[in-house]
Amino acid sequence: PRDHLAEIAQAVAAMVVVMAVFFSYWAAGGSLGLSSAEPDVPWVMQASRAAGAVIAVVGLLALAGRWGRQTRFWLPAALVWLGSGALAGFDGFWLMLNQLFAMFGTDGSEPGWSPSDTAVVVKVVIGVLAAAVGALAVTAAAKDDQKNQRA
What we know:
Strand content: under 5%
Number of strands: 0
Helix content: over 70%
Shape: elongated
Order of helices and strands: HHHH
Radius of gyration: 18 Å
Distance between the termini: 23 Å
Largest sheet: none
């Protein structure tokens, strides 16, 4: 995996860009993919989802070597962790609570499944993928440091 870390980071970054576009569109007032039965999600929430995605993309591309070699490793790693947490954290918790409410007969959400619900699930999965890439990068860097210290 270490040999292909740059390619994996770029692939995940491309997925995150797609999610950022969706959430930016909804933050700007777009309604494609939103059902009329859904309560309006505030634009600030959609904008924060897009901002988390942008932070993750910047960190992933930096890990992939798109910033050049001058960047210290901790900055891209921190951006990936921050962005992936923003992608997966809040909405992952929201999805888990909604599923618990539905399981116990008290539905915490509106009935039905909408494309925006699918986008949120995909966003959480991509956030977990971004976190995994960050973990791979940190592991690879630690192994490189160990090799350099031995030499």
